[in-house]
Inverse folding.
């Protein structure tokens, strides 16, 4: 009886320790997100200072093809919605729904990156607009490229998480990881809305 009580106490202690460990990791992610906010804030500020310095090169009005940009925006916003559906599936304990929506999110995110890379290649090869052409383009590629890199990292992270979920199922650890990747993805969506408004819309107006 005493042995069973001791075991029960040990299990409760282990569970509390695991919970504290997961909470600490979530807190660490919030710190990372704050540093990312500072990073993007600096890149936006730099772009705003440089965006009129075209050095006789292509201007935003000449470069930006809005139908493609609008398609990118729609795809990324939809992927944020599907990542939310994945979390919803997880909270219901529906493993199939969780993995299914994560896969859809990955496909949408990869489509976004594909369109962005195509946009960059077109600018460099057909418009002669590279990162060294002007201060405006340096600020543009630094800001939009950093966001695209973050999306690419998120995709690799999400694929790794899908494989882990297949192997381990929904545990306290995988649940925390799904919640974090979903939060990260929503954050990238918010950043993109600012990119779309400040860089593209203001650029063509």
């Amino acid at each position: 009886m005493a042995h069973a009580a001791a075991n029960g106490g040990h299990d409760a202690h282990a569970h509390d320790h695991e919970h504290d460990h997961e909470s600490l990791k979530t807190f660490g992610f919030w710190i990372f997100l704050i540093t990312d906010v500072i990073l993007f804030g600096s890149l936006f500020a730099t772009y705003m200072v440089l965006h009129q310095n075209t050095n006789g090169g292509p201007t935003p009005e000449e470069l930006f093809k809005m139908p493609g940009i609008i398609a990118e925006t729609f795809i990324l916003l939809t992927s944020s919605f599907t990542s939310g559906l994945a979390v919803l599936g997880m909270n219901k304990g529906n493993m199939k729904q969780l993995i299914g929506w994560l896969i859809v999110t990955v496909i949408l995110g990869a489509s976004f990156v594909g369109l962005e890379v195509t946009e960059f290649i077109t600018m460099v090869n057909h418009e002669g607009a590279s990162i060294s052409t002007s201060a405006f383009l340096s600020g543009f590629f630094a800001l939009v490229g950093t966001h695209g890199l973050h999306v690419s990292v998120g995709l690799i992270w999400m694929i790794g998480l899908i494989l882990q979920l297949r192997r381990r199922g929904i545990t306290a650890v995988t649940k925390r990881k799904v919640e974090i990747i979903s939060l990260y993805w929503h954050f990238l969506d918010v950043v993109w809305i600012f990119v779309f408004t400040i860089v593209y819309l203001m650029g063509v107006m």
